[in-house]
Amino acid sequence: MSQALAQHPANPPGSHADRTLPALFGYPKYWAECLTPAEFLPMSRAEMDQLGWDSCDVIIVTGDAYVDHPSFGMAVIGRTLEAQGFRVGIISQPDWTDPESLRVLGEPNLYFGVTAGNMDSMINRYTADRRIRHDDAYTAGDAGGKRPDYALTVYSQLCKRAYPNSVVVAGGIEASLRRLAHYDYWSDKVKRSVLMDSTADLLLFGNAERALIDITHRLAAGEPVRDIRDLRGTAFLCRTIPAGWREIDSTRIDQPGSLPQHKNPYDAPHPSDCDDAKSQHAAVDAGSQASAAPTQVVNLVPDTQAIETDPSSTYIRMPSFAAVTEDPALYAHADRIFHRETNPGNARPLVQNQGKNDIWINPPPLPLETAELDWVFEQPYKRVPHPSYGDAKIPAYEMIRFSVNIMRGCFGGCTFCSITEHEGRIIQSRSEQSILDEVEKIRDLTPGFTGVISDLGGPTANMYRLNCKDKKIEESCRRPSCVYPTICVNLETDHSHTTALYRKTRALKGVKKVVVASGLRYDLAVRDPEYVKELVTHHVGGYLKIAPEHSEEETLAKMMKPGMGSYYEFKEMFERFSQQAGKKQYLIPYFISGHPGSGDKEMLALALWLKENDFRVDQVQNFYPSPMASATTMYHTERNPLRPLNRNNTERVLTARSPEQRTLHKALLRYHDTDNWPLLRKALRRMGKQELIGSERGCLVPLESRRERELYQREQRKKQPASRLKKSRASQRSSRGRR
User: Fold this and answer.
1) In what helix (H) or strand (E) does residue 60 lie, and over which residues does it extend?
2) Of 92, 274, 275, 661, which cross-links 269 as Cys (Cβ 3.0–4.6 Å)?
């Protein structure tokens, strides 16, 4: 047995003992390391022959076109496994109706790795209004229709049809977002874990490099896949719970019925509101240095009622698939439990019954260390699409080919976003040198480079190296966000590392400009005016994207987004520094229509705010219920999983569900579009807001033209009942006779 594998003691199925795994680059290489790395991972037998391969150890099946670039999942996993000495092939966008399309590279020696691609396949294929898209940014030529609905399930089943005895490992964002019972917007029902329908042998969620490398080495050493049950970031089916594990009913932790007496962690004082933090802020506001310094760590563990358990021998029993399907309160409760168990420092395994089997979800993967993340990004990527696509453009690649990903994860916790469910809320940052080296590779190797780096960012532009000040607090915290309702005093908000990175990047030879295009978390940015000045002076290409998402506090609370105060603070800084730099630059705010918690009244208030601030939004994102997001739970159950749940609670979350109401909400944000005026006038009259129709200041839309009034009156007459219309005509004739 190899030295690395010797660190894997025989654990019973279901055990996830926190063994210390080697660093990603610390494993002894598999025998094929003697082979020269492939220029491109092969997609055909001819390419395998050129490389001198008789077979592949691992074959990645993906719903995206193959781009050998570290922003594309299939390339990251493929190159990472190649660096371990494995021969990796890729089957991109196979014909899902024909098992022969899965036989083009032969049967893999170890397993098929299946992913739907960089996006959930349903979000990729359909608009928020459930209309099928005719384009696909991850396909050559932007052609739609190259992947099936629920691609992860279809591809996994196809692998089993092609090679019934093959091992299938499912992964990627579709696997992450569908690992438990989840509401599926497109079928409008609760679906089972994707592991049930896909027939995959193992499911990986989150950033999977650590687990996948370990699995591959263990399978290569002859260990059966059914015995690999002890790795973080994995999920599998089990009929019986192994001996030695203690079960905790999830309702003991967070009772969904009558409200419990114990303190609920979501109602616990936020670290920014606890007594220690308040006294600290007071001292800072008063300018006093006698009390705690602003950087002092507040020793607070928000999860005040957590049951003392050993995560290596205790699991949480979630409500079953049948239960969450039938009872919206239990579905919302399951959402609360799921999001409380996302911190790898304290998460416990989750178990959910799905008929004859349980789904066992191990705790999330440990974040990669900086050296490991650097290693992943420094593999020999060609940074271009596979040559088989010829001159066809792949829009997703065109958008990112001159950009650099500097970090992973997001601690914002926005309820409509799926980043936390996939990448986690602990920021994983690359080293400065690794990032600078990649910029130089873009300069030297990427065709068409003109000297402009199109983005230095990630899920969020300005979370680079922003982590909890105290590792123990980070590992014990169960809060869903580090910045809501206020920024935690334990969070590092110093942007100096990012500022220094920007300056060093734009100083590189051959780099004319560095643009920051990732979305900015402006409530964090205002904590560091020097960063805002650097950003505004040198790294804004005329427009800067920010995402207030809404203007109304009740809706923002459902989103877990900051109030408009921080927006105004950032806007003032942005305009001041732009003026100092002698530049005319503009903020481009993004808003969501139809989000849970936003009824007609709230959307009207947002429309009036937009008009008052002279914003004319060209593109509006209608709320898109992605699997397992908390806002999706609100949409499906009309309950708020961010607060204690009670079956008899009469509070309901306002939710725009009908196509008519969702269309209206979208139209309100585009109040300036003349095509929307008839719909808006009708809605304003229905809402009793006729005063907002006219030409006076403060009106939302103008009055109808004479022609429009005539058409409106004609339509109203058509809607009158025939008897009423007949009576009206008779009355008119009688009136003429009297005259």
Assistant:
1) strand 58-62
2) 274
Contacts of 347 (CB under 8 A, 6+ apart): 311, 341, 363, 364
Tokens of 669: 């944000």
Return residue ranges of the chain for CATH 3.30.750.210.
401-539
What tens digit of pLDDT does each residue of 512-553 get?
A: 999 999 989 999 999 999 999 999 999 998 999 899 999 999
H/E element holding 153? helix 151-162
**What number does CATH give the domain 401-539?**
3.30.750.210
Q: What is the C-alpha to C-alpha distance for residues 386 and 90, in angstroms, rounded to an integer?
A: 11
Return the CATH fold of 5-239+357-361.
Answer: Rossmann fold (3.40.50)
Q: E strands within 79-201?
A: 88-92, 111-115, 168-170, 182-184, 189-191
Direct distance between the N- and C-terminal alpha carbons of the chain, in angstroms, rounded to an integer: 110
pTM for the whole thing? 0.88
Buried b (16+ CB within 10 A) or exposed e, 9-36: eebeebbbeeeebbebeebeebebeeee
139: closest CA among 68, 63, 77, 71? 63
With residue 707 as reference, give the H or E element that holds it: helix 706-719
pLDDT tier at 467 (50, 70, 90 boundaries)? very high
What contacts 69, CB < 8 A, 6 or more positions away?
Answer: 75, 381, 382, 383, 384, 397, 400, 401
- Alpha-helical (H) ranges within 208-293 are 209-220, 250-253, 275-285
At residue 714 the predicted structure's pLDDT band, cuts being 50, 70 and 90, is confident
Question: Where in the chain are all domains bearing CATH 3.40.50.2300?
Answer: 5-239+357-361
* CB 146 within 8 Å of CB 153: no
Q: Are 300 and 265 in contact (CB under 8 A)?
A: no
Q: What is the CA radius of gyration of the chain?
A: 28
Q: Per-residue DSSP letters for 497-557?
A: HHHHHHHHHHTSTT--EE---SPB-HHHHTT-HHHHHHHHHHS--SEEEEEEE-S-HHHHH
Decide: 142 and 135 in contact? Cβ < 8 Å. yes
Residue whose structure tokens are 């002890």? 230
Cα 97 from chain centroid (whole Å) = 30
